[in-house]
Amino acid sequence: MLKIRNIKESEIEFLKDMMYESIHIPENKPPKEELLNLPHLKKYNENWGRAGDRALLAEDSDGNPLGAAWYRLFNEQNKGYGYVDSFTPELGIAVSPEARGMGIGSLLMKALIERAKDDGFKGLSLSVDPHNEQAVHVYKKLGFEECGLSGTSVTMVYDFAE
After folding, report:
1. Which of 63, 61, 119 is nearest to 91 (CA)?
2. Residue 5 CB contacts under 8 Å (≥ 6 apart), including other chains
3. 53 within 8 A of 37, measured Cβ to Cβ
4. Most CB atoms closer than 10 Å: which of 8, 11, 51, 119?
């Protein structure tokens, strides 16, 4: 039985593990601490828990964490890769390698979309490597649409009005 719930403060390290997993680098991926502290990436995890931050955790019936989905607001002075505006949170998601292919990512995304609606946001954005075809397929299936490029990544948005 899968359970999706808000992440607890004591689980922030697992959230950072998932943030590391979410970065698509197929070869020679730097260690977690090094990668997450790079200037262009640490904005995603630094001071987690500020206004506009939300993270959900998926766990199995024994309480073992399987994955996480999260979002964070950025602004014009501190843009994320999937930045569209300062009112649209940018999301991230990752599922533990041993739990992939079981539909957990889609369930997490659907739950996060509902949470963002409940939190009063008008939509969500994300950034994805176009070579990560499986992820792009899932996002499109959930209703995300491509709206631009940022470096080598595609920016996609989900608009709640539709």
Report:
1. 119
2. 56, 57, 59
3. no
4. 11
Token duo for residue 162: 């539709």
SS3 letters for 53-78?
CEEEEEECCCCCEEEEEEEECCECCE
* Tokens (6 digits) for 75: 């602004």
Q: Classify residue 62 as exposed, middle or buried by CB count within 10 Å of its CB (0-12, 13-18, 19+).
A: exposed
What is the distance between the alpha carbons of residues 5 and 58, in angstroms, rounded to a whole number?
A: 7
Q: pTM for this structure?
A: 0.93
With b meaning 16 or more CB within 10 Å and e meaning fewer, what string describes 20-57?
Answer: bbbbeeeeeeeeeeeebeeeebeebbeebeeeebbbbb
Q: Rg of the Cα trace of the chain?
A: 15
